[in-house]
Amino acid sequence: MADTSKEKEHSHRTGSEKIVSDSSYPAPELSGSTSANELARSNELLSVMLDSVDGIIFVADIDTHEILFANSYLKNLFGFDPVGKKCCRYVHAGADNQCGFCSNYQFLNEHGVPSPPHFSEFQNPFTQKWYRAKDQAIRWYDGRYVGLEVAVDITEQKRLSRFLAEARRQARMAGTIHSRFVALVAHDLKSPFYSMTQMLKRILERETFAHTIHREFLENIVENGQRMLHMIDNLLTMDRLKQGDLSLDWKFFDVSQMADEVVSNFRHAAYEKNITLVNAIPRRTKLYGDRYLMFVVLNNLVSNGIKFSRPGGGVELCVPTAGRSMTVSVRDSGSGMSREAMQNLFQGEAQTSVPGTRGESGSGLGLLFCRDIIAAHHGAITVDSAPGEGTEFRVELPECYALGIEPDGSQEND
Description:
By secondary structure, this protein is an alpha+beta fold. It is built from eleven helices and twelve strands. A hairpin with an 8-residue loop joins β9 and β10 (about 325-330).
């Protein structure tokens, strides 16, 4: 009997995984298939399972913080058995006193009943590794409540999190610098171009020219200057869209009426190339979005249609899908494009600008601008084309209806 008592005392003192009955606690009765050998095998299996876990598992006294049990992972981490040491000293804070984030006082409620598990993160003071821990009270073999902690290594996750946070910070900084650069350059470009075009307009209005070609030269300069101002405005708007600084003015508007305005803008350009420009959008067809930005989109698409249409061709604005008012198409009978060209059309990295049927040039930014505007509307812009068969650009916005308006645009009857 004396040897058995010593064995129990040694087991309790060293924190051995071997569970031994305490004299103050009656050993359970073994009956039937239950036997001491089966209990020993279960205990051994549990120890193997705990030692196989790739993470910290230990049991500590709630009041003294003394480690009562440690799995192999924790022993190998330190290179020694920490049983008998304080968890606050060796596992958590590297101090003899209670950790600042210690949750032992939360293990039991005011009635002495175990509380729900507590979760925390800590960095081991010796290995500098980060862990995510789950702590809770369990009943120890001697009947008292002790603290059980299971912690997994999250060092790599922390490193990745810091890397992503720094990347986001640098991206925000780069975005801010980029926006300021774009704004400064746009301002420095826009001011002289505006002054130049205004002065040339005054000359054209007030002066007479001995040769018509001189007037035509100045008119061409004014036209190109205005085109440059328009491109600068588009660049600024594109940048504001990408940075999220542009708030859309959401409203329902008559897209057929807008299409009339677009047709009016390009009537002269279409006439010069002998191109028929048609607004086939049904009257009172509604779109929901920013009217100004959608006007910019249709202007760009019609401008492209005229640019790539041959003399005698046509450009049409229409609603391609019956019963779906939030879709508008611009079709042309132009030169069309290959599948490869369509795939690169909305890619900013690819050079997609090609001369028109009369050698008209472009920056290639118009379609990228349209893409960003439609994306800001949570919609989609698609293209369908084939070489020599013309092109159709389709703009689809999220489907919705104004209260009191039927999908076909008619008023509901009360």
